[in-house]
Amino acid sequence: MNRIKKILSRKIVWFLIILFAFIYFNNCAFLAKHRTGKPLLLAHRGLAQTFNMEGITNETNTAQRINKPEYPYLENTIPSMEAAFQYGADIVELDIQLTKDGQFAVFHDWTLEYRTNGKGVIKDYTMSELKQFDVGYNYTADDGKTFPFRGKGVGLMPSLDDVLNYFPEESLLIHIKSDDPQDGEQLAQYLSKLKRLNQLTVYGGDKPIAVFHKRLPGVRAMSAATLKKGLLSYMAIGWTGYIPSSCKNTEFHIPLKYAPILWGWPNRFLNRMESVNTRIIVVGGEGEFSEGFDTVEDIRNLPSGYTGGIWTNRIDRIAPLYNN
């Protein structure tokens, strides 16, 4: 009986040794296929005014706490997107909301008061009415003593139509700023008429993205729910090299602090995701308040030779590091 136990014990030990060896060599970095080239640079809201992130919440009026302006661009406007692409952005992110007349306005906040001279919410106005507002009206870097962009943002709120027409070949990340399934339905209907779907990615609330993905399954789409499902599935079985279906044809925004726990990070993981048409973007902080890689010091925290996507609020600082 003791001999049988010893034999079983040895078999278990050898099984575990083989299993751990398989996991290690199947996910270690030095055996991964070598990757070349520079990272994919994603400019958040174009080239926008930055602000102090300390103590920020979902209710914070970020236009009232901007840093001292270094350039004239305002977020989610065509000039800011054009500047971002000129600096070297590969993708520009923009926010959309449905208007009273069924168009998509490119604007971030739920309330117009935070940034503009308007009142109420986007859905209370037609697109032509929204274009009359000054999107730079309430920006201040000195607690309201001065408003450096007041009067300079009249007519700068674009529609999604305006953006797509102005940038017919560029890649865009479209953010649905709601959790209304109808928004996903309408965006899917709108985009289904276009011939450039491979250049577009959509993310937003769980409900609109679920509807959007059902209507246009060929377009990359992401929500908190798809991100969680995909990464948990990958953590459960990705060590085998098998890629779960929830990881395919989507986009993952991953805080860098958590990325090292992913099987095969960085190169093997990136190769696996790339093979199933999934784009990886690393973000700063906890991934909740759009923190990006905005300084040289931030970039130094990335793995050596990293070639995945990078979320940045300062494409003017980051793109030259790679373009040079």
Automatic annotation (TrEMBL):
PROSITE patterns for the chain: GP_PDE
Regions crossing the membrane: 12-32
GP-PDE domain segment(s): 59-322
Single GO MF descriptor: glycerophosphodiester phosphodiesterase activity
UniProtKB keywords: Hydrolase, Membrane, Transmembrane, Transmembrane helix
Organism superkingdom: Bacteria
Alphabetical list of PANTHER family matching this protein: GLYCEROPHOSPHORYL DIESTER PHOSPHODIESTERASE (PTHR43805), GP-PDE DOMAIN-CONTAINING PROTEIN (PTHR43805:SF1)
Name used for this protein in its record: Putative glycerophosphoryl diester phosphodiesterase 1
Organism the protein comes from: Oxobacter pfennigii
Phylogenetic lineage: Bacteria, Bacillati, Bacillota, Clostridia, Eubacteriales
